[in-house]
Amino acid sequence: MMIEDIFSDSFLAKAKADFNNVKSKPDLDKTKSMYLGSDSGVMKGFSSIPKLSADHRAEYGKNLNSLKSKLEVYYKAARESLDKGTDLPGLDLSLPGLSERSFAHGHKHPTSQVLSQTYDVFRGLGFSIVDSDEIETDWYNFEALNMPKDHPAREMQDTFYVNNGKSNLVPRTHTSGTQIRFMENNKPPFKIIVPGRVFRNEDEDATHIWSFYQIEGLVVGEGISMSDLKGTLLTVVQSLLGPEVDIRFRASYFPYTEPSVELDCKYKGKWLELGGAGMIHPQVLINGGIDPEKYTGFAFGWGAERIANIKYGLTDLRELWRPRFVFLEQF
Ligand code: DAH
To answer: Quick one: average pLDDT of 142-148?
Structure first.
């Protein structure tokens, strides 16, 4: 467009029509840049002022200013009518959908993914999910689970002791203490899992971390047997890792179960240790206020990170606690 044209009636009429016809935000931007952008006739007119003779400058500048104001009125009207159309100022309904634009989406951390899947599987089996505290007393963490002071089984769980001079508190070394807390406050039958963080005084390496998530399981009722335990664990492991996965029990020892077993799963041809389990020791039931003559039950516990490890083929557990996007974005 030639600079002279901009003062014609037809230019103004066309500008008005163009702004009136604007249907979208990109359309509005385009029209604005055509009439008011740095390449527009009006703006070029302004930059040509210094080249004009002194007599012409004032009048030319005045005309340009008046034209610019008119164009700005058209622009404002077009913008307002666009905003009204959406009832939400600034919302551009004509923007392409997400599929056409690349967005950085957040996603669940791999450990959270495993925890969510675990909750789904257990909910499907009728378990309730119970929350619990990360700081525990010595009684619930150890003593009530048949681990009095100086019991060698305490050695299995290197502990951060908190000594404030009054109480004997520990950042819990496992979620098993919640077994007792739950039994004290609930009447059998019940089926629960207790997910949560636990803390151990570990020297860290690729397979040991000082804090991790455990899933504790507790089932108490009349006539609960070892085969219930095995059937439950088989269903859960297969739901989490695939229907082809097999499990086995190895004889083991935990002070709070009798008999006690170690749970392994056969994943891609290899036996891998998952966690501990067993029939609840009668003294533990008594400590929780439950009559072992009437009720029996089973318990189990494993690390959520261990499932993540197997599922995703991780080589260094510590990555799950590092904020490294290069690693996390793979899941
Ligand atoms: N508390 C054990 C640990 O942290 C895991 C465990 C073993 C939990 C046997 C249980 C159980 O409930 O019965 O290593």
So the answer is: 96
Q: How far apart are CA 280 and CA 286, in angstroms?
A: 10
- Which residues have C-beta within 8 Å of that of residue 50, sequence separation ≥ 6? none
Mutate which of 140, 173, 300 for ligand 1? The one with the most ligand atoms within 8 Å of its CB, which is 300
Atom of ligand 1 nearest to the CA of 301: 8
What's the full length of the chain, in residues?
A: 331
* 277 C-alpha to ligand 1 centroid (Å): 6
Confidence check: pLDDT of 94 > 80? no
The pTM of the whole model exceeds 0.85: no
For the chain, give the percent of residues with pLDDT over 70: 94
Evaluate: CB of 25 within 6 angstroms of ligand 1. Answer: no
The answer to whether the CB of 147 falls within 8 A of the CB of 183 is no
DSSP-based three-state secondary structure for 271: strand
Residue nearest to atom 5 of ligand 1 (CA): 301
Q: Ligand 1: distance of its center to the CA of 79 in Å? A: 65
Strand ranges across the sheet with 168-171: 135-137, 168-171, 162-163
Backbone angle region of 75, left / alpha / beta, with phi > 0 → left and psi within -120 to 50 → alpha: alpha
Task: Please work out whether the CB of residue 31 comes within 6 Å of at least one atom of ligand 1.
Answer: no
Neighbouring-strand partners of residue 280: 257
